[in-house]
Structure formats: structure tokens, C-alpha cells
Amino acid sequence: MRWFVLLLLFFGTVINFADKSIIGLAAVSIMKDFNLSYTQWGLVGSSYYWLFPVTGIFGAALADRFGAKKILGFLMLTWTVLQFGVLAITALPLLIVYRVLLGVFEAPYTPIAFNHVHKWFPPKQIGFATSIVVAGGGVGAMVVAPLLVALIVAFGWKVAFALLGAASFVWFFLFQFFTKESPVQVYKEKQKKARLEKIKLKDFLVLVASPTALFTTFAFLSTQFLIVWFTIWLPIYLVEVVQLSAIQMGYGVATIGVVSILIYIGVSAFSDHLFKKNQNWRLSRVYVVAGAMGIGALFLASVTVFQNPVWVIIALCLAKGFTYVILPIGPSIMINELPERGGLMASILTSFGNLAGIVGPILTGSIVALAGANKIAGYNLSILFIAGLVLIFSLLFAIFVKPKLAKVSMDEQHVKLEEKESRKKNSVPVL
């Protein structure tokens, strides 16, 4: 059951990021239909994140209280309605309203999914399992890009959006009727007890302001700037600066997505391997993530110097793959700080990180617009800004983040018991 849950969470993330990224893939068509400037397009990209931080925390807190199945099911139904509602968009104001509402209801998905993984998997598999969920983002944002581009070209961008709404409804049906909330049979009793335990605001604020939580959040934030750039600006960058055709752009985006997924899954699995051997969070989690982010920042900065199309694709594969390692492991560090409120802790990380979504698109749009005819200089400045942020906060992350010893939850104990019983059943008795 846990692997099926993980598979559905993976596909849920695919849909989530396809919803985010299709706006970038359809950028040329949408800007042409509505006669939008670069500044206006930056506003469209930013609008998705205007309420994202608030609703991400609120939705994850509701999931801690009422359960992931109910909240995720509700979210998927709203995605369905909103994506079909795109068919009625006729002007820029409606496009912005749609993007704001989509951000409102998509914000809670990632922290809830991260915390749900922690219910089903033991600590020694958390890095790998969470990286599979994160990989869904890479697939949704980049790997399926050629398919989304083909749908946009064949049927128009509005129909392509509506088809993603249909995918959300299929996911809702499978998740609601074929999964369980938790591997622990006493889930209701556990939740009832948890509701009686209130968090003291002062203690909670001290925890959130601790060096471990604070610099994990800032490292996550720096990576979010890169995520937003990849989502909103990468397709246009590959067409206008690297001079790829629309089809080449689609395959380039897909290549970056596939290779980067393999990289951060591999690094996350390596982190799990180290943790299994030494149980040392600093060595297996913090140093691995910080080193990977630093390498990723250097590869990202290199595209401003070497702009050969082949090197740009290779460098962006490596930049995304190494930098994104914070995405599966960062939430694990935050959840470990307060396991009984795992959804809330993960949502603080993702919601604060997604403040980059408010600033990033507008900042990049303004830089490119100010550069005038020299678009390459504008894009290069935006890339160097992001690379600098990632490099600085990876160093601070390595210095100040010191996670406490992991607690073993009831869910994890149950998973271990299931593994032990499974080994007994599969063992051959000696006669």
C-alpha cells in the first residue's frame, strides 16, 4: 500500500507542476492572444504566488487536523474546476484571477504530500521516497513538456489546460477510493489525542526562528527562485536567447527534466545510504545538500559565460539536478523538528520558499525589459542573481543547520513491524 500511495503522490505532483508550467509553455500563444508586454507577463507569472504562502500553511494545518485524504481530495476537485474554467478566460484580468485561485488551492499540496510520505516510510527511506515525490515536479514541469506543447499546438492552450483538469479528477478518484490515511490502525485515536495538544505560540516561534529551521528555510527559498525561473522563463529563454525552435525547446526542457530527476534522486538515495550507516544528520543530510547546492550554483552561473546550446542544456541539467536536492531533504529536516505537526512545519518551509514566486517573475521580467534590445544581458543578470543566492545560502545552511536526533513515530514503528512480519512470512523454515 505504501508504494501505491507514493506512486499516487508522485502523479499528484506531476499534475501540480504541469498546472504551473503549462502557462510558461503557452507563453507565446497567450501573450499574442492578449497582446501582453514582458512586464505584464511577469505579473501573470507572479500572481500565482500572491496568496500561496498563506494558503499553503493554512491547508497543511487543516490536513494535520482532518487528514490528508480529505484535504487532498478537496484540492484536486478545485484544480479540476479551475482548469476547465480556463475555457472562459477572455482577457488579462480573468487570467490573473485564474492564476491567483490556482495558486491558492495548489499551495497546500506539496507540504501535505511530504508529510504523508513521512507517515508511510521509515527514516532510512525518507530521502529516496520524498525525492520520488519531488521528481513528480520535474516530470510535470519539464519531462511532459513535449506532450503539453503538442497539445497546445494541436488544440490550443485552453483545451490543453482543460485536459489537465480531467487528469486531476482521475487522481481524486484513485486516491479517495484506493488508499488509506495512515498505516496505523489507531489513526483516529492518535488524531483525537493530537487535537487536545495545543502548541504554545512562544515555543513555536522559538523553534521556527532557530538556526536549523531558519537557514533550512532560506536555502529552500534560494532554490525556489530557480524553480520559478525554470517554470516561467526557461521556455522563453531557450527560444529567444539560445535560439531553439518551439519543438527543440520542448525536447530541451524535457531533457533537463529527466536528467535532473535522475541526479537528485541519486543524491537523495546516497544521503539515505549515509544516514543508514552513521545515523548522522549533519553528515548525511546537511553536508550532502549544501555541497550539491554549491555545485549546482556554479553550473548555473556557467551558462552566462558559455552559451553554446549543447552546453546550456548540459549545464542546466546539472544545475537543476544538484540544486534541487534541498527539495526532498529540506522538508525532512523541518518535519523532524516537530514531527507531531509535520504538515505545518513542511508548509512553513514551502510557503516561505514560494515567496520567491511573488518576486521572481516580476524581477526577471523587469530586468529583461530594462535591458532593452540586449535580452541576453537581462537574462544573464537574472541567472547570476539566482546562482549567487543559492551559493550563499548553501554555505550558511552547511554552517548553521544542526538537526536534532530523529524521533520514531507510531507510523514508522508500524512500518518497521510490517517489514519484520513480511520477512518472517517470506523466510523458509529449517527442518
TrEMBL record:
Transmembrane segments: 48-64, 126-153, 159-178, 204-237, 249-271, 283-303, 309-327, 348-373, 379-401
UniProt cross-references to PANTHER family, sorted A to Z: BLR1003 PROTEIN (PTHR11662:SF450), SOLUTE CARRIER FAMILY 17 (PTHR11662)
Annotated membrane topology: Multi-pass membrane protein
Primary site of residence: membrane
InterPro entries listed in its UniProt record: MFS, MFS_dom, MFS_Na/Anion_cotransporter, MFS_trans_sf
Signal peptide feature range: none
Organism for this UniProt entry: Sporosarcina soli
Name listed for the protein in its UniProt record: MFS transporter
Location in the cell: Cell membrane
